[in-house]
Every structure is written in C-alpha cells, then in structure tokens.
Amino acid sequence: TLNRPELRHAPFVLWGHSMGGRVAQDFVRFKPARVIAFHIALRANPTPKELMEEEAAAVEVPGLYLMGMNDGKPADIREHFREARRNGSPRAWVWLPGQSHWPKGMHFEKDETSVIDWRAWAAHDIVIPWTEAILKLRLPMNADPRKGSVDLLPVDLTKGWVADVELKAYGPVSKFDAIDSAKSWFPNEKVTRAWASDSISESD
Predict the structure, then answer these.
(1) Cβ–Cβ < 8 Å for 31, 172
(2) How confident is the model at residue 135 (pLDDT cuts 50, 70, 90)?
(3) pLDDT-derived band of residue 2, with 50, 70 and 90 as boundaries?
(4) How wide is the angle at C-alpha 27 spanned by C-alphas 50 and 39, nearest 5°?
(5) CA neighbours within 13 Å on the CB side: how many for 147?
(6) pLDDT in tens, 8-62
(7) What is the DSSP string of 77-90?
(8) What does the domain layout of the chain look like in residue ranges?
(9) C-alpha closest to that of 79 among 101, 46, 56, 55
(10) Which residue, among 135, 137, 130, 176, has the nearest Cα to 156 in the 3D structure?
(11) Summary mean pLDDT of the chain
(12) Fewer beta carbons below 10 Å: N end or C end of the chain?
C-alpha cells in the first residue's frame, strides 16, 4: 500500500484510448463522484447497450469524445454522446482529421511517430485547454482529499460555448440551445476555437 493519503479520496481525470475508453466509461458509470472529467479516445469497437446506460450522477460528468475520421466510428458511442447531451451533460465531440486508431508512424516493432503526429493524434491543442478549464469549474476552492471526499462542483450549462458537430457552427450559449444532442458544450471560447481549428465536421 502506498503511503499517499491524499490519493484515498482524490478525484480523477480519466483518459482512455480504445479499450481504455471503455474502462473510462465504466468508471464514470460506477464511481461518478470520483471523476472530474473523462476523455474517450478512438474507441472503435461497439459496446453492449446495457453498458452504455448512465444514471443522472454519471451524466453530470464532463466528457470529451475524440474520434478519428479514419477509425471505426461506432454508432453506439455517437449515440452515447447524443443521449448524454439530451440529458444536459457537459460533453463535446471532436472529429480528428486524418487520424486512425494509432498515430501516424506507429508500429509495434518500431515507433516512427513524430512529435507533431503524436500531438495531433492526442488532440493536444484541444485536450489540454479543455481539461484545464474543466478543472477550474469542477474543483472547489481549498479542496484537500487528505481530509476526506472532494465534493465536485456541477457544471453550469447556462455558461460556456456550444458547437454544432455537423455544421461546425459555434458561439456562446446565449445564442444557441445549450442542451442539444447535435451540439457539443465547451467551457469557454478558447477551447471552442481550438475545436474549430483542429476538428472537421462530418454528417453521419
């Protein structure tokens, strides 16, 4: 056992690639109070319907869905996003142009992936500012997990920006419907513009 008492109650930001995305989903379903936010990255394989259902506490957890345009694009994960948005979840969908299940140059025998390709595959320019902004929204002032559970703050959907993943239209919540299954919710203008620069739209 690690002698790290602050980890006993520490909340998490989860990032899961492929099957790791399923693990992140499941953790949110079972322990939503411990999750600040989660990322599902390039999760190509479908999941049984009963494992896609979320209760209200899980729906409140912010999520970023990072999907490669050249990857599997399973219908169930897109519906997972849309159902969460219909229920008022602060989540966003990002299409990654030109990305497959693994970054360009990745081989199990030899990794020839450049720093630029790694950064693009991991959606670094979106993930980092999105995560930083969500941390500020979710963590209460003076939170100290060494003293017990951290009561994460809910996200106010009347603030922030929204973006249409099909039309690539975006703007402040005051100009759009903040709860719309076709639209992503972002915490601020900076993250939204990063999404607009790095992702592309595609109709299903």
Answers:
(1) no
(2) very high
(3) low
(4) 100
(5) 5
(6) 888 999 999 988 888 898 999 999 999 999 999 887 677 777 778 899 999 999 9
(7) HHHHHHHHHHTT--
(8) 5-198
(9) 46
(10) 137
(11) 87
(12) N
SS3 72: coil
Question: For the range 132-139, what are the long-range contacts, defined as Cβ-Cβ under 8 Å and sequence gap of 24 or more?
Answer: 133/187, 133/188, 133/190, 133/191, 134/13, 134/36, 134/37, 134/62, 134/187, 135/13, 135/36, 135/37, 137/62, 137/187, 138/11, 138/36, 138/37, 138/62, 139/11, 139/36
Structure tokens at 144: 């100290």
> 5-198: which CATH number, 1.20.120, 3.40.50, 3.40.1360, 3.30.70?
3.40.50
**How deeply is 111 buried, as exposed, middle or buried, from its count of CB atoms within 10 A (0-12, 13-18, 19+)?**
exposed
Band of the pLDDT at 202, cuts 50, 70, 90? very low
- Distance, CA of 38 to CA of 80 (rounded, Å): 14
Among 39-53, 75-89, 98-112, the least confident range: 39-53
Neighbours of 41 (CB within 10 A): 25
- Given the structure tokens 């979106």, which residue do they identify? 126
- The pLDDT assigned to 158 comes to 92
Nearest Cα to Cα of residue 93 among 184, 186, 168: 184
Q: Which residue type is seen at 45? A: N
Asked if 49 and 56 count as a contact pair (C-beta separation under 8 A), the reply is no
